[in-house]
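FIELD: query
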Amino acid sequence: MKPLLFKVLRIVVAVYVGVLLLYGFMQRNFLYYPQVFTAAEAATGAEQIGMVEWQGADGTSHGWRTGRENPDAHWIVFHGNAGNAQHRDYFIDLVEESYPRGNPEVLILEYPGYGARDGKPSESTFFEAALDAVLDLVADSSAPVYLIGESIGSGPACHVASELNADIAGLLLITPFDDLAHVASFHFSFLPVKLILRDRYRNAEALKIYTGRVATVVAERDEVVPAKFGRALHESYTGPSKIWEVKGGSHNTLLFSATESYWEGAFAFLADAESNP
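FIELD: result
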């Protein structure tokens, strides 16, 4: 029996090591799901949703913007891990109808490797692209800058807030997490995630440096980023913050309509920082 047991054990170990190597080498393929456009397709799509290219001072294409003249505020969206920036045009109506000051501009960052943008998706490329884009905007405008981080986009949002702090008026985090390793461990409990995960997005750690307002919206039945990780991020933050939990909501069923009370509350809380820092 012993030789048979050792043989079975070797097979089990070999299979486990194979799975570990697969997830280790392919992890970014499991994390990022970009939809790629040609430049012509991206230009046509932007025109259809009423946006123009968002370019930096050096001509870098950061993504797309509504191009409002003399806006009362800029709202920059860092979207989730699937599709591309133009799939988030629902944020235009949400911001324009929810922001109580009158004339906001909406900007949606395009990540490297998404849409028509060159590059490869990763934590470092997301962070670099996000910070460069916001620095360009801050240098070009005196209007308040707010950041919206959707799902994995909470990572770039928290990173930029930690780097620029006083230049960021507030954060709206939608289905976020405190540390991506916690989310990955939830889904892959059989793997030593903390040892092999390359892109960590340590949001709670980043927000230790930020001092502005943070509004968080989580979905009660979120099957992708369980609400407990968004609550953990909210509870770890020591600055002014509020959280809204959407009862019965899941990761992809939140209603991005200004008539929903959680958006009304979140935008009012953040905009109030302009008169009551």
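FIELD: remark
The chain has a mean pLDDT of 92.
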